[in-house]
Model the fold of this input.
Amino acid sequence: MDLFQIKPQTWESTFFDKSICDIAFDKQTLCTKDINILKEQLFFTLKEAENTCDLLRLSFSARNSCLFSIAQQLGFEVVEIRMVHRTYIDSSDYQDTEKHFDGTIRIANISDQAAIFKLLQEENMNFHSRFKNSAYFTYEQGMNYYGHWIKQALSSEKSSVIVYEYKNNIIGFMSFLESPEEEGSPVYRVGLTGISKKFTGKGIYKQLDSYLYSIIPVPNFYLYNTTHIDNIAMLRNYSKRRKSLYQTEYILYYQYDNSVDESL
Amino acid sequence: MEKIVVNNAQLNYRFTPWDEKSFEMDTREIMSVEYQDENDLAQLIEEFEKTLKSDTLVYFRQDSNDQIAKKILLTHGYYIAEASLQIKLTKVNKVDFSKIYRNNLEIDEQINEEDIKQIEDIAYHSFNYSRFHEDPFLDIEKSRIRYANWINDLIEQGKKVYVYRQNDEIISFQFYTVENNKADLILGGSKEGYGMMTLYFFSTFMSDLQKKGIKKMETMISASNIGILNTYMSFGYTNERTFFDYHKIINISKRG
Done:
């Protein structure tokens, strides 16, 4: 059986108007294989996908570090390193009565979509994302993706966005999503978080995070927070809020231009 | 330190005989680059590689935000073998370590020949994450030997060390240096099966450093080493910078 399988990504391919495929593999056993066999198999997978995919995505936990170097040697580029935090929250441990900055927080509605998107666009917010990488996506494609994300977060039953307002302007937001239970506990995942550069360092993240805990309908739950390894400010926020690192994830892209290099 | 100069750009590198001994091939570490543009950096890398006379492992830890370095190194056949985080604890005097984990282990700052052998054994067996361990193109056995050998190097360099023993057996150790009230935590670990002791050992030696007037502590951890990163974070450490460790095994005989 092939070690790697090609999985076309229909929604993303349609959205970005290019054929995007994932490479799947058995995460438990891959790194027990001989490294030369792995490299050869991944090379054959690249050849196999050449006629059907424009862009290949390989994502895996750092525990599968064997794949990290092999993939780069075959021409994959590291486009994101994500630090995934998973924290069991007891919201009674996070009672925050201190008011850091004089704004108001509320749950957003669909009429806030334009203001949130404007904030995201104007500030070109300080987050690293593969969708902002001009080697793979145009600026418009990246922004359309985030516009779509915000719209979905505001309109889906399972997700929501909270916004921070100051003098009638939205200066920060945090999207979140309800996910299937884990270990018998509810699970929520924080998606995109943004705070206007003019207002960073004023404790707004802490207030948004506390507000999130206050509106989640249960006192105890798992919360996922994910950011890129370069987002030092957000990682510091996570440390201060006692988030627990769960895994480091690598995402690599391979873009077909002409043809796969014939040499291994 | 050796250097390569092209125009106004400079690449600094060093020979690393301690790594050659473990990996049984020539090794060079690029320590830093100063450049204005892509062309300068590309020329520096090419001139540097011309100095290599036999098969060589080259490694270079650079800020992960340096997109020019990333581009030039990748196009010159380097790959990222490890991502790491430089983390720090500031305002050490305000931390109550006893409230985080028990901090009353009996630790020692003196070690003997038998201790050194045991520490080498821990260094050989207990580490799975590093710029070398995570590179699948390097023999993991040699990476383990490299870590065991490092212990003796640290002792010869006169680095300070804390150890914790149970029944005359070394359970945990931490090598460090101190400069201007800042402690640089170089290498530490616990015997296999004693992971829980790491929390108490950390709490104890950090408390001791605090008593000695240390104001800041700093260390470098692989981004893959989730357990130990969470341990440091539980003491209030925060991220300072992130790095990529670029590797290239240059095969001179193939290059002709």
Residues 12 and 32 of chain B are 5 Å apart (CA to CA). The mean pLDDT of chain B is 95. The two ends of chain B are 27 Å apart (CA to CA).
